[in-house]
Amino acid sequence: MSKLSIDCLNEIFEYLEKETLHSCLLVNRLWCESSVRFFWRDGWNYNTLNYCTLISCLPEESKEILNKNEIIIPTPTSKPPIFNYATFCKVLSINQAHHMIKNLIKNSNQQNIFTRDLNNNTNIVMQEICKLFMRQITSLKKLIFWKSPSVNFNFYPGSKNCLKYLTELHCNSNIPTKFFYQLSQVCQNILSLDITIGQVISDGLKDFISVQKNLKYLDIHYGRGKDLRDIIPTYVTFSQLQILKIQYSCSKYDSLIKFLEMNGKSLKEFYIGDYAGDSDNSLNLAIANFCPNIRKLSTGFKNNELKTLKLVFNCCQFLESINIWCGGEFFSEKEALEAILYYSNKNTCELVLYHLYNTRSKLLPEELESILSIWKNRVPIKPLSLMIVKYDANSLDTNDINMKIIRKYIKLGVIKKFKVTGFDNGEKTAHYRKFRPIV
Length: 439
Prior knowledge:
This protein is of the alpha/beta class.
């Protein structure tokens, strides 16, 4: 029987799920030594058993601290750990670790434990686990830290080496200034940054963002009444930025427009959610003027802004996918479909229709048929992907005749993909509708 080389095994294990990797651990010593680092690399998927194992890996001084505080947590075995498991971790979620450890302590006590004691013991164990991670992880890639009153995160010995090559950070704006200041001294090569803007914005957040010159992905979850200049200095540029997501509408668009003026040229994707439209249409005009290389766009166009949408299509010649709001003051389904039919460029091939709450579809079957028949004769022909996102709205898919037309043009190859989903499902879990060919 031929044996797979270690390099070949590593290539295979790279793509396996955690459950399958667990089985690989049991095959033989070679498989175990190869698969164990893949099994342990994603701390986000650690369960209570994983943390029991990590507690058995704690150094003696940490175990003495637990004993001194009468914190007893059973470990899987009395034997020393086979591996130093913490060294394999590449993705660490501080809040998830806190939650798991809290459950572990709670379940380890036969009698009920007072909430105050439970929280105190959780923080003690969490501190020792963080020390272990900081000392043992040689190259953490992703850190998730959503601040809460019961979670603390300090820079322990070894933190510099652990965090030096961090490339992805998910955090909250109210994390203490000291954390961001220390992080900005160590981490200056963040590629992906996901920030939730709360009521409090740390003074250190601006400094941290300012030093990230290689940032490629920026996702901002706005709190109401906040502005982009609250977290990003107006003079900072990100020459590598490719994806910008604003999850909720900000109170003012002038700072966002200035940001696009300075950083829009490199953008490939721009999404602004919960978009109510600014009164003077300046944001959409800024997209047309400052984002010439954009491939994917999600914004809002009011029903009197067709001229601006035409300008976006004309200036953004690489635009492949566009998300358009429908209903109310925005375009109707018919207007959105006709706009992409008559004014989009040769690269545009995907339309996502976001329906406002309680929107009623007015698209007639003969209108849909006419639009798709014209798309069929476009030169060059590029099959259309059509997605409908709605919540308690009546859209074109609720009409049986419309769906018969959709199935017809799927069979003809004019429609490449059609799917309907709710806002809560999102892109990753969207339900794909399948149709039988018309006989």
